[in-house]
Amino acid sequence: MRAMLFDAPGLPLREASVADPEAGPGQLLIEVHACGVCRTDLHIVDGELDVPRTPLVIGHQIVGTVSGTDRRVGVPWLGWTCGRCAYCLSGRENLCDSARFTGRDIDGGYAELAVADERYCFDLPDYYPDLQASPLLCAGLIGYRALRMTGDAERLGLYGFGAAAHIVCQVAVAEGRRVFAFSRAGDRDAQALARRLGAE
Questions:
Q1: How many helices (H) and strands (E) does the chain have?
Q2: pTM for the predicted model, two decimal places
């Protein structure tokens, strides 16, 4: 298969032909349709986040179909957890000390094929196009979780106005909440986007 490989910080990704991955027990082989670019991917490329090995296929906002089927799935950042620790047993798997992450510990989606733990694959409805569904698998999940943690708060403050915040803003405004967005001084683009999406 073709893949874009991360070799070292500061270098561009390298296109290469590599062996097709094989799915093991409990895993799915996914034909990748789209994979978003997250700030975490850029942290890896810039050398701000260490990876356990190279070369590595980065990318963790994967949308594709399970090989040989019509089943459309999404694959997020969280790629594997122990399932036994206090965090896993309380629905906070993202805090598992043994967690493995797609595109960091496990080859990700900047390739034609990817393998993922079926427990962390989400079935995706057809009405979400691939390109629009992809960022929901990271910023969307983070934003949704944060929004739900606010309970029924009538006013929300968003510190920073990146990918997750702009999704949270839209949902919160649609729910009738007042949203206050805080961005870096002088970041007029983020401020304009926040206002356009209904923030004060």
A1: 6, 11
A2: 0.88
